[in-house]
Amino acid sequence: MKSCLRHLSGLSGLVVLLFLWWLGTDVLSPKNSFASRFSVEETLPTLWHLLTGSDLFLHALISLKRIVVGLVFALIIGVPVGLLIGAKPWVERATGPAFQFLRMISPLSWMPIAVMVFGIGDKPIYFLLTFATVWPIMFNTAAGVKQLDRHFLLVAKSLAATQSETLLYVVFPGILSHMMTGIRLAIGIAWIIIVPCEMLGVSAGLGYFILDTRDRLAYPELMSTILLIGLIGYLLDSAVRAAARRLG
Fold it and tell me: Disulfide: which of 49, 82, 158, 247 matches 142 by Cβ 3.0-4.6 Å?
């Protein structure tokens, strides 16, 4: 019963949001005004048409592929470094100021340098996504290691477990919830910056498609793409939360 009420309350918020959008663009805005070009009555049918009869779905898949590649690189870098930071206080003291300094730099500010170094294409996007997502993974992994019950490590040591066995059967299960939190934050960040990243001269992706709709003055298609971005982001976050509950 509580679950149904929770879902209904969430649905009611979406209904209110949809109503405010319809009120602002279809009711209060004059006909043929700029705001009316983003109306609900034009956007929703356009979204259905794009999903069933255009390349929008393919653009979404390409964006998701880039997100996955960026997250894989972030995990490869962030998890080992996070383990080291959490296990060795001197490493945290030595690297903390530098990492905090880098973390506070907007990933998008690296766009010109990324293009100069990696050229046009997917490589600068992978770099920007990795740079943006490595920090929540790294710091949450380190936080999990710090909060790990040391008695578990002592038990593993008393049973003559090797370092790899301790890492696999004690450390990783103990920090899994923290890692999932870091991954969830990383996905949210990546999904936010993927659109401007895909304006770096690539020829596919949701960011590219938004620029294309702007250039063609196809405002219902532009608004449809924005809705799809929000929907996919919501589904990604829900999937990670469900996985975290199951693994926890």
Answer: 82
